[in-house]
Amino acid sequence: MELVTGKRLQSDVCETEVVVVRAPEGVVELWCGGEPMLEFGTATGRCNNPTSGHDQGTALGKRYTHEPSGLEVLCTKPGTGSLSVAGVALEVLAAKTLPSSD
Asked: Most buried among 52, 61, 66, 102, using CB within 10 Å?
């Protein structure tokens, strides 16, 4: 599946839902909980537990990034599965510090 900016995805193994904020360069398959993410509205509703090692969870409102591909997603619904690309966990994008207004 092609990941383009604005595309909504959901997990088939937990409640996680994300929106693509920055599309990757090339073809990338985003996984959650050890299974591929699906287009929004196409999940089967299995809601099984994520596989071991892919169960660190996602947090509402956090941005996750995969630096090698340039992929960035925003979590719109948290879940128990963790996001990954090619077996590598996505990193939480840290908030930028604003300059002081002294």
From this structure: 66
Number of folded domains that form the chain: 1
Find out whether 83 and 30 touch, Cβ atoms under 8 Å. yes
Domain contains 83: no
Residue 60, domain extent: 8-76
Chunked into runs of 10 residues, the chain (102 residues) has average pLDDT values of 92 92 92 90 71 87 94 95 92 86 70
Residues 58, 14: Cα–Cα separation, whole Å? 10
Residue at 97 is within a domain: no
How many Å from the N-terminal Cα to the C-terminal Cα in the chain?
A: 48
* Global confidence as pTM: 0.86
Q: Which residues contact 40 (CB under 8 A, 6 or more apart)?
A: 8, 9, 10, 17
From residue 33, alpha-carbon distances to 3, 16, 30, 50, 82 in Å are 18, 9, 10, 4, 5
Please check whether residue 18 lies inside any domain of the structure: yes
Place of tokens 């002294």: 102
